[in-house]
Amino acid sequence: MQTQPATAPATIAPETTPTSGAVATLQALIAEGVDTIFGYPGGAIIPIYDALYDFKEQLHHVLVRHEQGGIHAAQGYARSSGRVGVVFATSGPGATNLVTGLADAQIDSTPLVCITGQVFASLLGTDAFQETDIINITTPVTKWNYQITDATEIPEVLAKAFYIARSGRPGPVLIDITKNAQIQRFDFTGYTPCQHIRSYRPKPIVRNEYVEQAAALINQAKKPFIIWGQGVMLGGAEQEFKTFVEKSGIPAAWTILGVDALPTDHPLNVGMLGMHGNYGPNVLTNECDVLIAIGMRFDDRVTGRLDKYAKQAQIIHLDIDPTEIGKNVPTAVPVWGDCKETLPLLTALIEEKQHTAWRQHFDEFRDQEVAAVIQNELFPTSEELTMGEVIQQLNELTNGDAIIVTDVGQHQMVACRYTKFNQSRSNITSGGLGTMGFSLPAAIGAKFGAPDRTVVAVIGDGGVQMTIQELGTIMQTGVNVKILILNNQFLGMVRQWQELFNDRRYSFVDIASPDYVQVAKGYYIEGQRVSERANLRNALRTMLEHDGSYLLEVMVTKENNIFPMVPQGCSVAEIRLK
Amino acid sequence: MERQEYNITAYTENQIGLLNRIAIIFSRRKINIESLNTSPSEIDGIHRFNIVIVETEEVVRKIAGQIEKQVEVLKVYYNTNEDVIWQEMALYKVPTDVIAEKALVERLLRENGARAVVIRKDYTVFETTGHREETDNLIKVLQPYGLIEFVRSARIAIIKDSEGFNKKLREFEQREPGSEVVENEYLNSREKVFTM
């Protein structure tokens, strides 16, 4: 099973009178169980917005302040709820403003259906007002896209769009509808959800011989190591994964998109992989004898230098996308399939073990990392606040139950390294694309996707200024999002690289900030700034307990570096503690 | 690994935009397409791409996987030149008076496996099919006789060992029933899922 809608798609009865393409579009969304749309109107999508006026009870539309905000919000919604995020945008600039979010969703496998308006079909290719060739522009960053020029295509194409977006390895789909097709009336013969496309096989067939080979390797292994990614959650296989880990007794480490599939405090959870991951998991990747990769794609931020990555290990790779297997690292045993299906098969064949001595290695490295990095970061003795201690205090107050939404950069690494997660779908971050400006709108969407949960957007002072206009969306919708700005007065991660690798030539990373509290007040959002340790905990508590959105700006050390670090071009075993 | 010519055969739905989607897979990796041909296949509604690139097998294997991953692509094979029977077609335009006066046309045609497609007062068009070196050869021969124009088609190729795609497609559709079956099942339970 893959990411499923909370409500199963429904068949809609044929209309007796001719229906407009715009109305058929909205009826398709309702049939697919859509309840929330993020969007921004414009000339080429007016007919759909006009129809939406009569569907306000069934379809909640969130008016964002920029289409990039709209699509990041839809991503946040999809990631927190496990449902398909839906976006509306107009033609031309409206559609091109979606490109960053599409690329982000494509690389992070987020299910989206974007509906863009387009100029009249008769004007296509004439450089008409607000015309762009959005199908060709978005081809490399969508799982599928399609242009509708005739209203009769709408039911079938939208059914395909939702099926493709959510099935197999999920991804973004863009449907471009020309204005004439939105207006055109046709005999709506009903909506039938798509369950099959002749040329599309979302899940490879599980081959038992590979599962058996994988189990045999695992059973013989002396120093096995599990690394997992978001695929566990996309497959809804958190429980199957936990059972597998516990029976195998194998230490397991995560990529940043996978972190929340297993509780942080689980005794077999040994931490984060990759460039700013934990010391032990990185070093021991190059010591394990069997490496079991589950629902992850060996991103270069995880592997470091490939020709020195886990060369001693036999690699077992479980993935729903066959093209990920063997893409970056040679695989000894490929286990194609949805991990919801393959993990139980594997668990049944493996022996129950403890691997006590091997696990102690991880503990030893953990102790070294605590002494060299973690202690100072979470419990600093210096005067200035660290990002780590802010996250540590937040952990204590939220008890690991909040959804944490981050951008990219130092604050992201700190938040992912130090946040405690108790439940799945709690860590929402821009993983593969590393999009600044993702966090604030994604947090808005995450709250709509999981209204009962506390949502905290953790953002750097660079990222927040990229989509700060979405404070307007918060103002208008009244959505309850906690905004925690970690302000180090720099584009911190770039500055860190310049310090370490460019002789401290701080080229254009010194970024000034507005008075965020005043900006928030301008949008009728409460807030405060903190720079003293003595006030931090109370400020965080005030933010969390406030009835409604709240902006907290924390002034942190300007030139703090994120360690450990695998310098680019180095092996994971060359990870530096300072 | 050695770089050599590989023939990629892709069976796809006949869909606008798919050519671009496939071309992007090559261009984003900065791989040049040496030859590209698309045509209907023996199965109604299914098209066939023949793409030739010069690459290592590892790269070709990954590319083939990426193409097959596209929603509208049914199946992709890749083969070396030894694994396929392939042909290209070439047309040569030469002045009729020169060729008639100076060349031993009959011999020229026989030796190069060519045939005259059009004979006009002002020019004659010959055609050959074959591998690159064979069609290249006639260019050299005709050059002294005032070759006016030359054009060569993309490569088409048939895989020697495969049983064709018909059987594979039937296997696919048996494994994953087509929309007709699913829709019929759905229609039977329509009362239960009807919401509006």
From TrEMBL, chain A:
Cofactor, how bound (note): Binds 1 Mg(2+) ion per subunit. Binds 1 thiamine pyrophosphate per subunit.
Metabolic or biological pathway, per its Swiss-Prot or TrEMBL entry: Amino-acid biosynthesis; L-valine biosynthesis; L-valine from pyruvate: step 1/4; Amino-acid biosynthesis; L-isoleucine biosynthesis; L-isoleucine from 2-oxobutanoate: step 1/4
All copies of domain Thiamine pyrophosphate enzyme N-terminal TPP-binding, residue ranges: 21-135
InterPro entries given in the database record: Acetolactate_synth_lsu, AHAS_TPP, DHS-like_NAD/FAD-binding_dom, THDP-binding, Thiamin_PyroP_enz_cen_dom, Thiamin_PyroP_enz_TPP-bd_dom, TPP-bd_CS, TPP_enz
Enzyme Commission number(s) from the entry: 2.2.1.6
CDD domains, A to Z: TPP_AHAS, TPP_PYR_POX_like
Enzyme class: transferase
Protein name in the entry: Acetolactate synthase
TrEMBL record, chain B:
This enzyme's EC code(s): 2.2.1.6
Phylogenetic placement of the source organism: Bacteria, Pseudomonadati, Bacteroidota, Cytophagia, Cytophagales
Assembly behavior: Dimer of large and small chains.
Key word Amino-acid biosynthesis present: yes
NCBIfam families named in the record: acolac_sm
CDD domains in UniProt: ACT_AHAS
Family the entry assigns: Belongs to the acetolactate synthase small subunit family.
Biological source species: Hymenobacter aerilatus
Name this protein carries in UniProt: Acetolactate synthase small subunit
TM region(s), chain numbering: none
Catalytic activity: 2 pyruvate + H(+) = (2S)-2-acetolactate + CO2
GO cellular component term of the entry, any: cytosol
